[in-house]
Each structure stands twice: as structure tokens, then as C-alpha cells.
Design a protein that fits this description.
about 600 residues, about 0% strand, globular
């Protein structure tokens, strides 16, 4: 799991007063969820052009093919599908094609053909039985192991698939594709560090005279990038990504689909660094390439770009992109495909910030129903949906509706992941916030304190991410009047932003706003003023249209007035009014258009 990414962004958009912070939490959490889900899905984006797959499909449909040739083509398609060599959209289209091909294979190649058919249809039990029969008489253990690995991988049992790929490389240590499959499967099984170390080891050992050196280097660099946490290890990502960009230009061309993927990943990297202009630039480049190639994109890059727009306050622009993504995914994958969940959640965030709470809740409930129906309550996507829905309810003081959802999901994650898991830590944070808002401070503090202990286990002690969990507890202390404890916690987090090179980020601006609030409550206006001024400076540079900025401007105006600087106070109040007018202009007219599109 990309743990650093989630916690890194989860606190970033909390507003600067305890009275309004919950009303802005939804946007933050939803943005994080979208980023995380995008991260998972991007690993399966296409590596080959759609026309290449069309040619293979035509081969399957030629009735004159011998059964053995059909088996070979079917095998190739399954391998491509499971390894992400084709995009999810093509994979969905291929499901029917693979089943048709399997049906056409006669009993002359019985066991192997039927095993492939079972794998194609994700009938794991049938495939296991047939593979057991084959293993008893088959001398080619590598092929048997690969079929077993394929069966486990295709059914989502990645850790089991890893075991079989390990056996393959033990038998055939010189086969590059076997190592490549092992590394890819280790990443899917969340064994990322081992995958990265293995890829680096193989990369260093490549033969300079190998005619396939550049393609192998490209493949290994791609795996290394996928193994890195973009949030907590951003410094590691960029050199590998840029090196691979040069290889992609040489191997596939500057306008290739592969280059579009590189641009998408660069956009995600800059987004994580709060470099939104650069992120937007690369996402637009990626979209331009996909459109020029008439590649059947599935809305991923559009959703990425929409996240940038939402994060910088351009919510209506985000909604336009999300409508296009929703239409594309619905047309290509169906109206109930799980990919629609993250589009719906991102739309909920945009609607919420536009003040259309009814539309926001509608999108959120749609995503909850879809996640529960298609994935089940134990799936990680459902868990994130509940976190967002909880934030939505809490923002409207509907804590009685939020609490049972959080408690149920907490118990599910405890049973599934364990008491000390990241998911349980995050749910304890959510429950602590809910209970705090309801005035049940003793139990709230207990959950928040446990959450801090749990979440700190997942990051190095001196890292910025390790300090973020303290923010929730510091907010609790602020709310309950324990100002010195709150100040200590916020100062620790602010220090972490500085030593981690994130002093000029929205996270740092947020923490400074909380510190200013402590001094405002104590009527220490001179101490509050520099924190607010610094926070405003950061927001005006990074996200000038974000609604949070309006709250800071009004507070800064009030502090200046208390200090007797009335002319400056009037100036900042005028800025706040101007921003409010601009944001109010983003009306809810988009709702009818969206409902028409989704209808």
C-alpha cells in the first residue's frame, strides 16, 4: 500500500479554525483517495498500442487456426493481460475474446487447453485441478510453474504467484522475462523494497553487449519507479523517471503511448511535490498524446488533471474533466465498473467545495453503493469510501450518522489487517475526530493517541510523515483548550516540514494557521500575525482560488485590526470579499449537466 501518500495528503487541507476545519476535510481526504487509487491503477496502464492487440485478436478469430496455435495465442493474451502489458480497457475487451478462443479449442490438447480456459475464465478451482494432473506427467516444470503462477496472479493471489515465480527463476536463472515477472508480482504483493532491490541488482548485471539492453533497461526502470512511494521517496523517483523518459523517446518516439505514460507519471511526481503548474503541464501533454493516437484512454489522466484543478480551487474545470472521464469509463467498461468509484468521489469533493452539499452526498452515496456491490465491505476501496463519507457527514454535524460507519469499518479492518495496521490507525483517527466533535473527549483522546502510536510505526522517526499523525492529536488539544500541548504538537510538525524540504507547501501553511489560532485564542495578536502572513503567502503562490484562503484573509484582517493597523486590515478584508465573490460565481449549474450525463 502507498501509505506515505495517503497520510501525506490527509491533513493538508484542514482549515485554520476548529469551527470550520471539518467542513473542509472532505476535499482533502477525497483528493488523497483519488491519488492513491490512481497510483494503484496506473500500474496497469497500457504498454502497447491498441492496434497491436487488434492484430492478435484477429488471429484468434481465424477459424482455420490449428488448436495448438490457438492455445499459443490464448496463452500470450492471458500473460499480457495479467502483467499489465495491455491496458485495463483492452483487458476487459479481451475477456470475451479469450473465452471464445478457449471454447474453440478441442479435446485434442485437452488438459492444457482446458487449464488455459479455466485461467482465462478465472475459475481457479478448476484450473488448480487440471494443473495438478499436468504436473504429474509434465517434464517441463518451468511451463507448469508459469501456468500455476498465472492462475494465482489472475485471481489476485499475488503472494502465491510470487512463490511460483521464485521456483521458475531457481530453475531458469538466465531467463530475463522470468525475473521481470517475479519483480512485477512482488510489487503487486506489496513487497516493494525487495522488488526494487532485485530490479537494481539485475540492472547492474546487464550485459553491455546484449542486443536487448535498452528494452531490458526500460522494463527494469519502469519496475523501479512502480516500487517507489511517490510521497515519502520523491527524491528517488525523479532520476529513474527522467532516465526512462530518454529511453522511451529513443525506443518508441516522443509522441508514443509510452511517452504519454511517462508524462502522466511526471505529472504525478510534481503533484506530490505541490508543483501544480508543472503537474498540469505534463498531464496535458499526456492527454494530447493519447488523443493524437486515438488511444482508448479510460479517464485516468483526466482524473489526475482534475485532482490538480480541485487542489488549486478550480472545481468547475475539474468537474468538466470528470464528466468526460465518467462518460469514457461508462462507455468502455460499463456503468457499474469499479473505476467509476474514484471519479464519483472526486466529483463529490468538487461539488462540496462549490457549496453544493446535496450533489456531493449523491456522488458519495453512489460510490458507496457501487463499492459495496462490486467489491464488498472488506475491499480497500470500500474502506476509503467510508472515510470520505464520514468526513462529509461530520462536515454537516451529522455525527450520529458518521459514527456507526466508522465503528463498523474499524472492526472490519481490525479483523482483516490486525490491531496495529495502517488502516486501523487511520480509522482510529477518524473515530477520534467524530467523538471529539460530539464532545466525547475521553474516548476521542484514547483513539487519537492509539492512532499516533500505530501510524508512527510506518515511517522513519524523523520523517515528515511520522509527524503528521500528531496533527490530529494537536487539533484535539486545541479544541479542548490544552493550548500548550497543542502548540508543542504543531511545532513538531512544522519543524518536520522544514527538515524534509516542505516548508513552502500547503501542509506547512495549514500548520502555521493552527499555531496562529492558538495565539488568537490567547489574544496574543503579535505572535499570531507572522504565522497568518506566512500562510497567506504560501496559499497565494500555490492555490490562490482555494476556499481556505478566504478564511485566512478574514482572520488576518481581524488580527491587523487588533494591532491598530486598520488600513491594512481593510485591504485584506477586501481581498477576502473579492475571493468570496469569485468562488460564489462557481454556481451549482453543473449539477444538471452531470446528472444528465450520468443518467
Amino acid at each position: 500500500m502507498n501509505l506515505g501518500l495517503f497520510l501525506h495528503k490527509a491533513i493538508s487541507f484542514l482549515s485554520f479554525s476548529t469551527e470550520v476545519w471539518m467542513s473542509l476535510l472532505l476535499g482533502a481526504v477525497v483528493t488523497v483517495i483519488i491519488a492513491y487509487i490512481i497510483y494503484r491503477i496506473q500500474k496497469k496502464e497500457a504498454k502497447e498500442h491498441k492496434q497491436d492487440h487488434d492484430a492478435k485478436l484477429e488471429r484468434i478469430e481465424q477459424l482455420h487456426l490449428q488448436d495448438s496455435e490457438k492455445i499459443k495465442v490464448l496463452y500470450e493474451l492471458i500473460v499480457q493481460s495479467q502483467k499489465g502489458s495491455i491496458g485495463e480497457i483492452e483487458a476487459a475487451v479481451l475477456e470475451e475474446k479469450m473465452e471464445v478462443a478457449a471454447e474453440q479449442i478441442t479435446d485434442r490438447d485437452s488438459d492444457k487447453a482446458q487449464a488455459l480456459k479455466a485461467i482465462a475464465e478465472k475459475d481457479k478451482e478448476e484450473a488448480d485441478d487440471l494443473l495438478d494432473k499436468i504436473a504429474k506427467r509434465e517434464h517441463d516444470l518451468v511451463e507448469v510453474y508459469e501456468l500455476r503462477a498465472m492462475n494465482e496472479y489472475r485471481n489476485g493471489y499475488f503472494s502465491e504467484a510470487v512463490k511460483w515465480y521464485r521456483r521458475i527463476v531457481e530453475l531458469e536463472p538466465d531467463i530475463f522475462t522470468a525475473w521481470e515477472s517475479l519483480i512485477d508480482t512482488l510489487i503487486e504483493a506489496d513487497q516493494r523494497l525487495e522488488a526494487r532491490e532485485l530490479a537494481l541488482k539485475i540492472l547492474a548485471a546487464l550485459d553491455p553487449q546484449d542486443p536487448d539492453l535498452e528494452m531490458k533497461t526500460y522494463s527494469l526502470l519502469h519496475c523501479i519507479v512502480l516500487s517507489i512511494d511517490f510521497a515519502s521517496e520523491t527524491d528517488l523517483v525523479e532520476p529513474y523517471l527522467l532516465k526512462n523518459a530518454e529511453l522511451v523517446k529513443k525506443l518508441f518516439g516522443s509522441q508514443s503511448q509510452e511517452m504519454g505514460e511517462i508524462y502522466n507519471e511526471l505529472g504525478r511526481l510534481f503533484w506530490m511535490q505541490d508543483k501544480f503548474k508543472e503537474a498540469e503541464e505534463y498531464y496535458l501533454k499526456s492527454i494530447a498524446i493519447y488523443k493524437a493516437l486515438k488511444y482508448a484512454y479510460d479517464g485516468i489522466t483526466f482524473t489526475n488533471l482534475a485532482s490538480v484543478y480541485s487542489y488549486t480551487g478550480r472545481y468547475r474545470m475539474a468537474l468538466d474533466l470528470l464528466d468526460e472521464a465518467y462518460a469514457s469509463i461508462s462507455e468502455l467498461l460499463g456503468a457499474e465498473h469499479p473505476k467509476l468509484i474514484y471519479v464519483l468521489q472526486s466529483k463529490a469533493s468538487a461539488y462540496f467545495h462549490l457549496g453544493n452539499f446535496q450533489a456531493a452526498e449523491l456522488q458519495m452515496l453512489k460510490s458507496k453503493d457501487l463499492a459495496e456491490k462490486k467489491l464488498g465491505k472488506e475491499h480497500e476501496l470500500y474502506y476509503y469510501v467510508i472515510q470520505n463519507l464520514t468526513a462529509l457527514y461530520c462536515s454537516q454535524n451529522r455525527h450520529e450518522e458518521a459514527e456507526p460507519l466508522v465503528r463498523e469499518t474499524l472492526e472490519i479492518q481490525k479483523a482483516k489487517k490486525g490491531e496495529d495496521s495502517f488502516e486501523v490507525g487511520m480509522m482510529r483517527l477518524a473515530l477520534g475526530d467524530v467523538l471529539s466533535a460530539r464532545g466525547e473527549f475521553n474516548e476521542a483522546e484514547e483513539h487519537l493517541s492509539q492512532a499516533v502510536v500505530i501510524l508512527n510505526k510506518f515511517f522513519p522517526p524523523e520523517s515528515y510523515n511520522a509527524s503528521l499523525a500528531k496533527t490530529a492529536l494537536a487539533r484535539f488539544y486545541l479544541k479542548t483548550g490544552k493550548y500548550e500541548e497543542a502548540r508543542t504538537g504543531f511545532l513538531e510538525v512544522l519543524h518536520a516540514t522544514q527538515v524534509s524540504g516542505r516548508a513552502n507547501t500547503l501542509e506547512a501553511a495549514t500548520i502555521q494557521g493552527f499555531l496562529a489560532e492558538i495565539h488568537e485564542k490567547l489574544e496574543q495578536w503579535s505572535e499570531a500575525e507572522p504565522y497568518l502572513k506566512s500562510s497567506i503567502s504560501i496559499f497565494e503562490e500555490i492555490a490562490p482560488d482555494n476556499p481556505i484562503l478566504q478564511d485566512i484573509l478574514m482572520r488576518y484582517s481581524s488580527v491587523l485590526a487588533k494591532l491598530g493597523r486598520q488600513a491594512e486590515a481593510d485591504e485584506y478584508k477586501a481581498k477576502a470579499d473579492e475571493l468570496k465573490t469569485r468562488l460564489d460565481g462557481q454556481t451549482t449549474e453543473h449539477t444538471e449537466k452531470t446528472e444528465s450525463t450520468e443518467g
